[in-house]
User: Fold HTH luxR-type domain-containing protein from Streptomyces glomeratus.
Amino acid sequence: MSLQNLGLTPEQESVYRYLLRTPRADPAVAETELGIRVPVVLDELRALGLVDELLLPLPPAAAVDVLVRRKMERASRELARMEAAFDVVRDLAEEARRGRAVELVERLPDGLEVNRRISAMLDRSETMHAKPMPLSSTYSEEYARRYRRQLADGLVSRTIVGTAALDRPEQLAYARQMNSLGDLHRVSAEQYLPLLIIDRRIAFVRVAPGEPSVEAPTLLIRQPGIVAVLVELFDGLWSRAADLDGLELTAAEARVLRALAEHSKDEAAARALNMSLRKYRSHVADLMSRLGASSRFQAALRAKERGWL
Assistant:
């Protein structure tokens, strides 16, 4: 295969192959033999990382690896430009539908319209979500199923939740479930606005954070400079937040773990805790999910490894 398929010019490939055959070659001799301006091409090969200052060429396997990576980076940038072009097409289609220009900052009247807009964005590859308030259940089951499919298909998703969002056991269980599915969760005690960023290009920011999510108006922001600032804000919050799996056990979880280790049957453990069998088994399932355990025996072992037992 010609190295030109990986991005080299014919002159660059000729000089590189010449150096492989003739290490530490004299550039003047090489120029005479090849009939090209070797010093200029050598500078280009050095810039590409294929030749060092002693005119020693990178070994073929390493050189091909460098060229393949550069080609992949160029392809990635080109795909990003294509995605931006498709964004323009979608904006133009929306403009034609509405009969007016699409705004870079748009006010959406309520959470239902926000959910409709988010649901229409099928081809996302990354989401960043900051939820300071208790976790919302306004999303439909259909949306939840589709979101789980997107996670399974490679959607990169990060979610920051406030400590108040995890006060109720069902909310903590939901966060842990989503974390196990690939929507990585962290917990922050800092103050911040509800925020959703999609593909680092579109942001949804709640105008009145104290209002219920279904009623609150929200800004849809496409202005690149504003979105870039919001991405930086989210990344800072994420770096300071605590891992969800690193949270200490609640008192109830600690009691369930001890009962799990001490009793071989669920009925006996539930009675010892003065807890319904259904609630006990729900706690056990949550703990197994949190510990990444496939069996109760494995859950007990991993709890001991963490110092929880």
Q: What stands out?
A: The longest strand covers residues 156-162.
